[in-house]
Specification:
367 residues; 81% helix
């Protein structure tokens, strides 16, 4: 299904009289296809644009090519390897004197820095991009709004998070970008599920909140089907639905999702979260009266726990493993993980405070 953005770009390409502008619009269209999960189509479109960029020696067109190249990499796997291409896009946009394109590139760099929890770079890029983006640069403002909303949600500032989600939604609607609307729904569902799962790992699960969040996660999946979005298919099943099914005690369904999607999640750049997912599966196995499988998963989770870099994931994983080992009558292991869980949770709360302060400083004076 073609989004309104793609349809608008098709019309603009057909109407463009300037050949260079036409090629830049084609690159923008390829980026829209990439964000929609149509990666083969985006690659095909980009192949022709590369030769045009080399022949025309236009830094603006080369910036668009680098940006879309990075987007394709990002939607294959949410790993940092796209960063070099976004940096190149930003550098070329600076050379071209295109402030709006600089803002878009900075928005994508901020996305990757948020995923990697690199707070200083994230805050600086958000501030610079907000200063550069013109009022009608809906693509940049939707992207920046999403990162700011997620960052405030991570920081525990829900009221400001909601304001930025609304900001991103308004600009995504103005842009006609259904892929951005999908990303908004994905991120809201995943972050809500993560918080509910964290509480549940410490024995403080909220069943009603989990029910509501699961409905939202399933609605997100339905939106993707209707909009035709196909990128990063494991995010909702694992980051939202499976974790919520654990809270709700729907053990068999949760295990089925973990079994189906864990392998692909590694390929899509979520290897650093594997310990948390496997620890959740271990808990499910215990509830299903399968201690052998629970023991195997607990050992596997412990092996890959050092790959985690988010304090909330560390806290949830250790807390879940503490409960698993206690159920397996391994009190020494349970106590060890409980101490580590409490330490990680305290570190997470302190990190949230640092994020709130850094975000407030980044936005100071911007209105």
């Amino acid at each position: 299904m073609a989004s309104r953005l793609v349809e608008r770009l098709d019309a603009a390409i057909a109407a463009a009289e300037d050949p260079l502008q036409r090629e830049c619009l084609k690159a923008e269209r390829a980026g829209a296809l990439a964000r929609h999960g149509l990666l083969d189509d985006a690659r095909f479109a980009l192949a022709g644009l590369r030769s045009q960029a080399q022949r025309r020696r236009s830094p603006r067109l080369a910036a668009w090519v680098a940006l879309v190249d990075g987007q394709i990499d990002h939607f294959v796997s949410i790993t940092p390897k796209a960063m070099d291409k976004f940096r190149q896009a930003h550098s070329l946009a600076v050379e071209a004197g295109d402030a709006d394109l600089q803002a878009i590139a900075l928005g994508w760099m901020a996305t990757l820095n948020f995923n990697a929890s690199r707070l200083p770079a994230l805050a600086a890029q958000l501030r610079e991009a907000l200063q550069l983006a013109s009022p009608q640069n809906h693509a940049a403002k939707a992207r920046l709004g999403l990162v700011l909303a997620d960052a405030h949600r991570f920081a525990g500032d829900d009221s400001r998070s909601q304001l930025w989600y609304q900001f991103a939604r308004e600009h995504a609607i103005a842009e006609g970008d259904t892929s951005m609307m999908s990303a908004l729904l994905h991120n809201i569902a995943a972050m809500r599920a993560g918080r509910i799962g964290l509480d549940d790992a410490f024995g403080q699960g909220d069943i009603e909140a989990a029910h509501r969040a699961l409905l939202e996660a399933e609605s997100t999946a339905n939106y993707d089907w209707g909009a035709g979005a196909a990128a990063l298919k494991t995010m909702v099943p694992l980051q939202a639905r499976a974790q919520l099914l654990v809270v709700l005690g729907r053990w068999d369904e949760a295990v089925a999702l973990f079994d189906t999607h864990l392998g692909r999640a590694r390929q899509e750049g979520m290897a650093h979260r594997e310990a948390r997912f496997v620890a959740e599966r271990a808990w499910c196995h215990l509830r299903r009266d399968r201690p052998r499988e629970a023991l195997k998963d607990a050992k596997q989770a412990a092996k890959c726990i050092d790959a985690q870099f988010d304090a909330d994931d560390c806290a949830a994983t250790h807390a879940r493993l503490a409960r698993v080992w206690r159920e397996l009558s391994r009190e020494d292991e349970a106590q060890r993980h409980q101490v580590l869980a409490d330490q990680a949770l305290a570190a997470y709360r302190a990190e949230q405070q640092r994020w709130r302060e850094a975000l407030a400083q980044a936005l100071d004076g911007l209105g």
